[in-house]
Design a protein that fits this description.
There is one protein chain. The chain has 325 residues and is mainly α. It folds into two domains: 169 residues, no CATH class; 148 residues, no CATH class. The protein contains 15 helices and six strands. The strands form three sheets. Strands 1-2 form a two-stranded antiparallel ribbon. Strand 1 and strand 2 form a beta hairpin. The longest helix has 32 residues. The chain is globular and about 75 Å long. The C terminus is likely disordered.
């Protein structure tokens, strides 16, 4: 019954979205439980664990060996529109090139580049992290949405052998993920230093008297959902050391804040009037200092930069920000 379920859902297992993988994982667990629905409760849990262990062992042989072949690269024979057949190479390198992802989706702070070579040496690609462990969840070893093209710092240095889960962490492929957290600057209060923090200079990007923080963001009045989001954001922050990573890049934010000051509301209008052939709209000028959700995926520190510029500067440009400038 378990194997029939897997065969029936094989296509969804390989190419299904995060929502589909969550459902398959839940349905598979129900399949396990149904095998022992008439068994005495005293032995049900132990039987379930034993069966799960035995089946996982068999599934690991099948799915992990398939992943290993994919990781190394294989030659496939494909049929073209004209009916002729040709050999094509398919594997991890081809997959990450097809994705076009150039920035680690876990941290958004490291490039993930692909460089190939005919030999084994002198080439590199992003690590393909199994969000759900291929040892614990072997059927997802070849699921495309379970393979996260991450940097080595996130995958090897921070995550290592620790397990991530849908309950405690955000998978970068989850829908609307950028809506669930937001970056902000927390300006430092009086501290034991040789100078008193200058909050105006910090706001304007002229000093480093601030800490970058990541906080959950809620758009719905749903306490249960808020708690889930809070838990998962916290899980990612702690696992990938995101607060430390982003505070290493404070000088980048300073530079972008200064750029935003240059392109203030008045100057944007002047540029549009003076150079209508070059700048078609105010939105086009704003794109120089903030990014769309799609652009964030391919821009180092794109989410952090956009949040700071948008929510701390541009939304207040007619009052606080303009007065400070």
């Amino acid at each position: 019954m378990i194997f029939l379920f897997i065969i029936k859902n094989l296509e969804s297992i390989v190419i299904g979205s995060i929502a589909v993988l969550k459902k398959i994982n839940s349905d598979l667990y129900k399949q396990y439980k149904n095998l022992f629905k008439n068994e005495n409760d005293q032995y049900k849990d132990e039987s379930l664990k034993l069966l799960s262990k035995l089946l996982n062992k068999e599934l690991r042989v099948l799915f992990i060996s398939t992943y290993n072949s994919f990781s190394s690269g294989v030659s496939l024979v494909v049929q073209e529109n004209g009916g002729s057949k040709k050999k094509v190479k398919w594997g991890a390198y081809e997959y990450v090139k097809l994705l076009g992802s150039t920035v680690c989706p876990y941290c958004n702070a490291q490039f993930t580049i692909v460089i190939e070579n005919n030999g084994e040496l002198g080439k590199t690609r992003p690590d393909l992290d199994h969000f759900l462990s291929k040892t614990l969840y072997p059927i997802f070893a070849v699921s495309l949405y379970n393979l996260v093209p991450s940097c080595k710092i996130c995958n090897l240095s921070f995550k290592g052998n620790q397990n991530t889960s849908f309950e405690n962490h955000f998978n970068p492929y989850e829908q609307r993920i950028n809506e669930y957290f937001r970056f902000s600057r927390e300006f430092k209060p009086g501290r034991k230093a040789k100078h008193t923090p200058d909050y105006v200079q910090a706001i304007l990007g002229e000093s480093e008297d601030f800490e970058l923080k990541i906080r959950p963001s809620f758009n719905e009045n749903d306490k249960k959902k808020e708690e889930v989001i809070r838990k998962k954001v916290k899980g990612n922050i702690e696992l990938f050391r995101l607060n430390e990573v982003y505070n290493f890049h404070k000088t980048h934010i300073q530079k972008m804040v200064l750029n935003a000051r240059v392109y203030d509301n008045v100057y944007r209008k002047q540029l549009i009037c003076s150079f209508p052939e070059i700048f078609k709209s105010e939105e086009e000028l704003l794109s120089l200092v903030q990014y769309t959700s799609e652009e964030m995926k391919y821009t180092i520190l794109g989410k952090m930069t956009t949040d700071i510029i948008k929510f701390e500067l541009l939304l207040n440009s007619k009052d606080t920000f303009m007065k400070l400038v």
